Amino acid sequence: MNFIKNNKIRFASTIIIAYVFIINIQAGIDFFLHPDKYVAAFELSGIPGLTAVAGTGLLFLMWNIPYAFALWNPIKNRISLIQALLMQLLGCIGDTFILFRFSNELYPFLSSSIQRFILFDSIGLVLLLIAAIMVWRKGVIQQSI
């Protein structure tokens, strides 16, 4: 019975983590391979703009390494899940601070882009938090048995 419950928790948390991971990886690949689609949203241009956006895409891919380990087995790799959760939290906080560094009226496209990042990171944060709570509760239940 405990084995079935563990598998359900692992499966459910893996699905949640997979969603966040896939969306993050998709964004990273798109930014890296097609930076021309995003330079205007960041009010950038030319080779420096393309390079900055592609570099951001590469960072997205790098930052998702802990997500991959958490995805592989969120119960055994709880520390990777915690790392991913903290990274997502830092993204939300950091994006919010960046948004307040400039005037939204003077830079509406940039403001809109940063707000999308805040929404994107916030949704990921909530989903990873749900997965972490499921895994944490599983650990507490298992320790009490």
Question: What is this structure's SSE topology?
Answer:
Blueprint: H1 2-33, H2 46-63, H3 65-72, H4 78-99, H5 108-144
Helix pairs in contact: 1-2, 1-3, 1-5, 3-4, 4-5
How many strand segments?
A: 0
Spans of at least 5 consecutive residues with low confidence:
none
How would you describe the shape?
A: elongated
Order of helices and strands: HHHHH
Q: How many domain units?
A: 1
- Calculate the mean pLDDT score and round it: 91
- Per DSSP, the total helix count is 5
Largest sheet: none
The helical percent reads: over 70%
Q: How much strand?
A: under 5%
What would your notes on this structure say?
The chain has 145 residues and is mostly helical. The chain has one domain. The protein is 81% helix and 0% strand. Helix 1 packs antiparallel against helix 2, helix 1 packs antiparallel against helix 3 and helix 1 runs antiparallel to helix 5. The chain starts with a helix and ends with a helix. The mean pLDDT is 91.
In short:
With 145 residues, this protein is mostly helical.
Features:
145 residues; mainly alpha; elongated
